Amino acid sequence: MWSLIQLFYIIIVNAYITSLLYRSHAYVDGPSQLILTGGSMATVYVVLAHLAKSTTIQEHNEGESCVPTGQILVTQLSLSSLGIATILMVFMGGTGSGLLVTFILGVAQAVQWSSFYCLTTSGFAMASATSQLTAFAVGVPYLQQGPFGADTSSFIIVASLVMYFLTLPRMNSMPLWSRIILMIVPLLPRSMTVAIPQTWARKSHPIELLHLEGRRQYNDMVSRQSKTVEEAITEYHRRYFRAPPTGFDSWAQLALDNDMLLIDEFDDMTKAFEPYQQVGPNVLAKILERVLDMDLDDLVIVKIENSQITSSSDKFWNYHGEYLHDWLAKPLYKELLPNLTIILNTFDEPKVVIDSKYAQPTLDQASNIQFTNFGKTHPWSRMTLNCPGASPVSEVAEYIAVEFVADLTQTQDVCQHREYEKLHGFFNTPGNLNLVDLPVPLFSQARPSTFHDLMYPSPYYEAHRDDYNEEKGFPWDQKRTSLYWRGSTTGGYNTIENWQEMHRQRLVLSTIPQNGPYNITLLEQKTSRSSWNPYRTISTPKLQGLFETSVSEVVQCDEEACDELKAALPPEGSQSDSASYHHKYVLDMDGNGFSGRYYRILRSRSAVIKQTLLKEWHDDWLVPWYHFIPLSMQGSEVWEMMRFFSTDEGDEIGAAIAESSSRWTETNLRKVDVELVTLRLILEYGALFDRKQ
């Protein structure tokens, strides 16, 4: 029995070594992959070989049990491997994501190899190489993706066989060469799937790799969330280098009690408060006083006093205040609320771009605050006044590569993309825009990277929470493989000079089937193992058939522009919300501000292709390529995107993204989640006026 326990221990330890070695370099690509893999394996082999030579393996007969012989040796080797692998993981910056899954796979592989060995010898030559072979078996899908995968694979196979030979016990009943053959025969099926496929293996499409990375990021994010109030407070200190606001401990307990999945993920929402932390509470109070006196129609004022919440009652947009009241109305929430005055921007467009010279305004400056109307003008310089002067315009070459959005934060950084001036209606010629250049701490539903509005959950989404009707939806395999979008020409004010630069019009003009064929760029492989390279071609009727894009109504334009728009993009009228549910892929684009249909189509079990320059509160919780498919502002990659999604591999990923987004709305978009997000934001807001913290 003790011998069996020791054998089980050896399997477990080697499986753990597997997970450490594999996770330390599984996601590393390029030449460093070979260095990390080879270096870690070689170090283990050197020590194992040294120990093997210094330990005597007694001769034994074939009929002996496979358990007792060599136990001391294998135990020593396993412990040494464990120590080395742990040190390697620490210095190589390994991640703990998926460790349990890898460990379980390692156990299964270790049992398989150990069983093979017991059939061919009564020693433990197998155990010393089990961890290395298992690590490789588990890591094959990832090793194949790197350019040095074949070299790494060959190294591991050869080194593992060498390790077999070094620790193989001497046998009396059978020649050594025959024992080696018997030992290699069980490995041949694995070798066919491990070594040879490195020549035949299909090179993954960029979208496949982006989806894998998105899934890893989200799983990592979920696994690292705080499990106690104390952990949440510690994590807040670590992220923001300051103490959390008054009431945070009670908020954290409420979040835990209500099973909030992402209790720590508030980075964008929290960092939005940083400019206002540079302004004294008395100056902020003066700014609020001045804004209240202005009595602007597009602002709703909410006041909290002695836990009682009141809002403007005579304005058309007052439902914003009513939803805020509803979100904070629970007794457990109200007892945490400080006395505050809150300003809600009810318009789609944000309002605050702080001029650096007013970053810390005086009381006199705060008393003279003004909002300036930039509607139907070209306010690019005003919107980007805080960008470095040397910000380059990203050049788009005549022969362009197909580039998918890999870093959404960088893609949405307006300062890094001066070309957005001509690619997005809001930056080109907004239909409505009232800007203020002092730090007015008002809440807006969405904002670009150069704006300083505070973010909060949009009441519009909440008002339309039940718009998705499950009975009108379809399972994935009953949807059409096509991209759907129909909407009006909002997004900016259209003139004869600029309407073709507006983001909605540009995308429809470049995909509407009746306007084809189009000059497009796709990706191709010469062989299944070669890289994906771009090539220019003409869109085919089959490819054009993957798009169903059209304009429902022509609006926000002067007379001449309206006429041209109607001629180029004949309006086809509105359709019911459920029209999009027939399609596997649904495009969602900015309008004048954020898109109000986003949550509905995330729920619809279609995969959302999202094109936006606006940040919203939920960006902290949604992961690109796992919950949605990001599209650049140029949008030219949409052709290759849809070509890939029409393949079997692409369809599988599209279905996974659609399922992930639907599940996200169920687990992260509950009413209680929106309430708790709002409560935490109000606590952060209250801290601006309570600097004693």
Largest sheet: 5 strands, parallel
Residue stretches low in confidence (pLDDT < 50, at least 5 long) are 22-37, 51-71, 92-99, 119-125, 138-152, 189-201, 395-399
- Name of the top-level CATH class of the domain at 466-667: Alpha Beta
Determine the N-to-C terminus distance.
Answer: 62 Å
- Identify the CATH architecture of the domain at 466-667: 3-Layer(aba) Sandwich
CATH fold naming of the domain at 466-667: Rossmann fold
As a percent range, the share of helical residues equals 40-55%
Mean of all residue-level pLDDT scores:
82
Give, in spatial order, the strands making up the sheet with the most strands.
11-8-12-13-14
Rg computed from alpha carbons, rounded to a whole number of angstroms? 31 Å
Short synopsis of the structure:
The chain is 46% helix and 9% strand. The chain is of the alpha/beta class.
Please tell me about this protein's structure:
This protein has 29 helices and 14 strands. With 693 residues, it is an alpha/beta fold. Helix 4 packs across helix 5. Among the domains are: 2-201, no CATH class; 466-667, Rossmann fold, CATH 3.40.50.2000. Helices cover 46% and strands 9% of the residues.
